[in-house]
Give the backbone structure.
Amino acid sequence: MYEAVFIDIDGTLRNNKKELTNKTIEVIKEVTKNGYLVILCSGRPRKYTEDVSKKCFASKYIITSNGGNIYDYENNKVLYTNKMNEEACIQLYNIAKEAKTRFMMNVGENRVVNQLKYFDGSEVLLKEDINTFVKNNDVVQCVIADSDYDKIKSLKPYIEKIKNVEIKNQHKSLINESFPKEGTIYYDIANIGSSKGNAIKEFCKILNIDLKNTIAIGDDYNDVSMFKIAGYSVVMQNANNEVKKYADYITLSNEENGVAVFLEKLLKNEI
């Protein structure tokens, strides 16, 4: 019997307007009532993921920063952290500084940034020397971002030269040039050994869950590590064909309540 369901947020759980539909919320409530653990598994920072988890009544556990952190928000307890290499963080910061782009570090529950964009408390401005900061804080993911597609694309070779880290996720236009080059163009960067899949492994060890009794639901390249680890893989219809190769089941798109549709089948023992 399946025990845990790991669900990506963007492009999976929420629609393209970043909304949680009432149908999705109600089905997740029902799934949790039936004894399943629903764990949101995102590239987003901790506080952001926690807020979404609470809104959809998922479990108290979240996996954030593309697997860099596992957190129990009811007990304010960090279960796992994959701290980034300090020298790599410094080099990434300098790349962003030279290019005059936004630089974000996922630390604790929020993001520490070199340029404030949001003033809702989700970001904290870096006010100390970067060398001192990374030594005294557990940075689990760095993000380099800008609205200028060409500028961000030009930074990729420099990022890829940095030892001990790799790009975990990126704007789809940086992989497929036919994808609209709109909004914030970004790279999520973390330790080579950090991934959603490895975080699921750690989570299941901590809670003594057999990996064969887990389900992963996602839509993008950074979800592939989940699909390789989980007992059953569910890919959204809006995913590209390369990601769909890892699917045991393809559900409807995120615009069609694909997560809820699949979970209803799970509740009916049709999976």
